[in-house]
């Protein structure tokens, strides 16, 4: 079963940007007035390529056999048995092989998110004789305890660590790690460069 984790804020903002671009492209084409419209289209194209590469494409994917790290221009396939250690700071760092490290682009933990998680992990204060917080069900309480003091990146890092340990306990043989170029991202960036060159060259 495949599970995909990414920055929800970046993903939503990227689609909002695409909707904005679609409207403006339609407007520029319908009211085309030569060089100015072409330059505006090139600028929109370049910015959209960057949005795709840094906001839409990055993802952390769990499959049955491996961890897939989709970064802006490369994709790394790390079999669970090859993972040696996982650490989380601002980003999730997965160590494998001989001191090789995969730095996952998403999810990341901002300083604000980490401070909020630490506040959430502190025991709640009671005011006076009566509790002011609503009573939680057992399931809700378990969820609160699981996320206490943790960011989304911390939680995903724990999931990676648990999967890797589970596979190692089964003594599965580690397959080679594969790193491939992201041809979709390269194609999008190349198209943006071509559009900018055309806008510059055409009088």
Report what the structure shows:
There is one protein chain. With 203 residues, the protein is an alpha+beta fold. It has three domains: 79 residues, no CATH class; 72 residues, no CATH class; 37 residues, no CATH class. The chain is 51% helix and 19% strand. Strands 1-2-3-4-8 form a five-stranded antiparallel β-sheet, with no helix packed on it. A three-stranded antiparallel β-sheet has the order 5-6-7, covered by helices on one side. A hairpin with a 3-residue loop joins strand 5 and strand 6. It starts with a strand and ends with a helix. The model has no long low-confidence stretch (mean pLDDT 86).
Task: Give short descriptive properties of this protein.
transmembrane helix; elongated; 8 strands; alpha+beta; 203 residues; PH (Pleckstrin Homology) domain-containing protein; 3-stranded antiparallel β-sheet; membrane
Structural category is alpha+beta
Order of helices and strands: EHHEEEEEEHHHEH
Q: Report Rg.
A: 23 Å
Q: How many discrete structural domains?
A: 3
Which band does the percent of strand residues land in? 15-25%
Strand order of the largest sheet: 1-2-3-4-8
The end-to-end span amounts to: 53 Å
The largest sheet is:
5 strands, antiparallel
**Number of helices, counting only DSSP H or I runs of 4 residues or more:** 6
Give me the count of strands: 8
Shape estimate? elongated
Low-confidence stretches: none
In helices, the fraction of residues equals: 40-55%
Overall average pLDDT: 86
In short:
This protein is an alpha+beta fold and 203 residues long. 51% of the residues lie in helices and 19% in strands.
């Amino acid at each position: 079963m495949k599970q995909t984790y990414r920055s929800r804020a970046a993903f939503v903002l990227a689609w909002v940007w695409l909707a904005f671009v679609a409207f403006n492209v339609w407007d520029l084409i319908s009211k085309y007035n030569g060089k100015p419209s072409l330059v505006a289209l090139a600028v929109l194209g370049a910015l959209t390529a960057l949005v795709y590469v840094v906001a839409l494409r990055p993802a952390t994917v769990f499959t049955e056999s491996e961890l897939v790290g989709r970064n802006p221009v490369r994709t790394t396939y790390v079999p669970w048995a090859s993972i040696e250690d996982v650490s989380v700071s601002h980003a999730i760092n997965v160590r494998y092989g001989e001191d090789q490290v995969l730095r996952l682009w998403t999810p990341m933990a901002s300083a604000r998110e980490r401070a909020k998680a630490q506040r959430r992990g502190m025991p709640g204060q009671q005011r006076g004789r009566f509790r002011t917080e609503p009573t939680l069900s057992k399931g809700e309480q378990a969820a609160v305890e699981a996320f206490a003091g943790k960011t989304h990146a911390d939680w995903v890092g724990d999931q990676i660590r648990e999967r890797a340990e589970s596979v190692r306990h089964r003594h599965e043989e580690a397959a080679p790690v594969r790193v491939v170029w992201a041809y979709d991202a390269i194609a999008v960036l190349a198209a943006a460069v071509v559009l900018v060159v055309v806008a510059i060259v055409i009088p």
